[in-house]
Task: structure prediction
Amino acid sequence: MRYADEIREAVVIAVGALRSNKLRAGLTTLGIVIGIVTVTLMATAIDGLNRAFQRSISMIGADVLFIQRFSWFTGREEWAKTRNRRELTLAQAREVARLSTLARAVGVEAHGSADVRYGNRSARAVWVVGNSEDSALVRGVSLTEGRWLSAAEVQGARPVCVIGSDLAARFFPLESSLGKRIRVGRSLCEVVGVLEKQGQFFTGANLDNQVVIPITRFTTDLVRWPDVTIAVKVWDTTRMEAAKDELTGILRQLRRVPPGMPDDFAINQQEMLVRNFNQIGGSLALVGLFITGLSLFVGGIGVMNIMYVSVAERTREIGVRKAIGAKRRNILTQFLVEAVFISLGAGLVGLAVAWPMTWVIDYFLAARMSIPTALAALLVAAVTGIVSGFLPAWRAARLNPVDALRSE
Amino acid sequence: MSLIRITGLSRHYVMGTEVIHALRGVSVAIERGEYIAIMGPSGSGKSTLMNLLGCLDTPSQGVYELNGLNVADMDDNQLAEIRNREIGFVFQSFNLMARSDALHNVELPLVYAGVPPAERRERALEALRQVALADRVHHRPNELSGGQRQRVAVARALVNRPSIILADEPTGNLDSRTGTEILALFDQLSRNGNTIIVVTHEEDVAQHARRILRIRDGLIAADEVNQPHHRAEAPPRLPPVLTPPPIIS
Result:
């Protein structure tokens, strides 16, 4: 018996059997439907989380090393040891720029917050960033209007600023923001540029609500001795390790770290975030899918149960089929196909239910049910059908024809 | 060579600690083209003999040669193939697939034989024509009368051109008029050269056969030649029936 033909025959039988027991088949599928819904939603949420992270992380260039006082990932113990480290200074940043050969550009960065006002409009606690002229290249900034801070402005601590797109839209909805003087903290700064819209970082920070001022202005207006980050853009991404070594050498010298003592600074990079996220995200996904998978398992037991009932009810039919020449394989296929049909149908219903529910997830983190997720869900449903249908089908296939024919 | 030759066939069942000897060493030969009735009261072992002849069951002891093949030693799947190719079953309660129409019911043995769909349909239609149901091919069993259902079952038994048609109380669920109709159909199949074995406990039914095996207590009590006297009755108008299969030696 040719295989395609065999499957087709089994499908005809399965559809007939299911149609004559609609309510029962429907109730049985409910378990699988719930299972598929939860698994699909979980997968979609994980997917959304991943994508949100990837989008955020791409804002931190892969070719940038961040020299900071602390490592991004510091344990409690380590924190106790490192919390007395000296700040990194502007002078050290200038020396790094002068000495490093592998650095393409060195930017300085300091963060603070201040109220911003223009006329009668104001914004409280805006994120203020102190930058140098090279920070544009290091940060990979793009502007919709105007220009970045110039070297002269940074040198002379000029009262100028570059503002985020949200601020621009809020303060100057109908006019150009260029040339306007806004109050940032204590001083009036002239807007020289507007940043392109960037959206949120995965931590939830709004990147479009920032004001960039020269780092020199930052130290006079906001924080006298800020804890600066020296951001180093490296020429060649394949030589990140070499660049790290070079920077470590330069900084140890600048900060006079005696030989044998550990570094009193940290060099952070994007990869650390990625690695950490993959670790946490990976185990989160595993646990999440396992827990949601449990509901699918329960659904599978339901299918197995109903298949046992189906086999018991149709014992005589099995006997007749065997009498006229059905082999074990034919009977096995017939019942497996029926189980897979129940599960696949449930999978489709589950997807139909889960789809609108992903819109709710989308409200919190950009998530769509992807085609691969949907296909994977259907595959999982089919496998559940095969697994839970196998024992009942096997029992049917092994029935003795004489006994089967005698059953009522 | 005989179509069927059984030698010292016995079958016992173990029920708890008790061993039931349903068949105690039966030997018989059946030639191609015979029309045989197997008779006996309930508990005589005739059902066991029928199950063995139909390859639904395997004997505890003895040899069963069908068409020169010893089926006593075959496994499940080989037996399924033999049943499919060599034996056409007709049951007392018809045993049609309730959800399938007549045509699909008749096609079923061919499905398991792996016959391609087009040829399957052709042969099934032909078989239905031979039991005069060409106008009922798309009716389901519940839309057919008892006699019509049994004719569908006969068509299903015929469709794969088996060596034997094995009928178990074929008229048991029918009123006497339709019963006669089915027996007339068997007479005609027999006249056309088919080998027919009917298991029954009704003397009327057995009288259609030309040989009667009487079973009692697991043994053949009598093996007699019969002069069918029902033949005088005019059979219903039925078209010519399938020719028997070519003899494969």
Summary: Residues 3-56+275-406 of chain A form one domain.
